[in-house]
């Protein structure tokens, strides 16, 4: 636990690099189209509990992994954002299935330390192009759902994006009181 706290307060932090393909505004709502390269992520998933019931536990396990709770005992630092993959039902409410991922920092991309927690897996995620909408404040399920709804309305029916899942992203440590950055990402599909 101390490693997790030490790592998040004093460890190296980096933001996942991306290329802005375009910045757009429709109906007064600004968003970006971004391209992210393929990378390795530490990921953990849950089924059966709601977002608000389980998110703290899943994020804490990943922070412990990158904070040194791994086979090498290596505190790696953190690469923001924390990315939560959600699977909304037709009414917009999150299903009871989600995946939380943290990109492995650049220094460890080639050979990440093995997790000691069997629930955590290292996965290679392909590159992706996303529609990204940024917003502030503390974000839980209701805030992410509201922003996803806003982005859906902004993009409209003809924009090619995946509607069966999307990403809820947090760039800040949980104790940061103000100036918080959150985003909703929709995965672009080929037209």
Structural commentary:
This protein has 191 residues and is of the alpha+beta class. Helix content is 21%, strand content 38%. Strands 1, 2, 3, 4, 5, 6, 7, 8, 9 and 10 form a ten-stranded mixed sheet that branches. A hairpin with a 5-residue loop joins strand 5 (78-88) and strand 6. The termini are far apart.
Q: Which class best fits the helix and strand makeup?
A: alpha+beta
Task: List low-confidence stretches.
Answer: 1-10
Number of strands: 10
Give me the Rg, rounded.
16 Å
The proportion of strand residues reads 35-45%
Order of helices and strands: HEEEEHEEEEHEE
Overall, the morphology is globular
End-to-end C-alpha gap: 46 Å
Biggest beta-sheet profile: 10 strands, mixed
Average pLDDT, all residues = 91
Task: Give me the number of helical elements.
Answer: 3
Helical content (DSSP H or I, runs of 4+): 10-25%
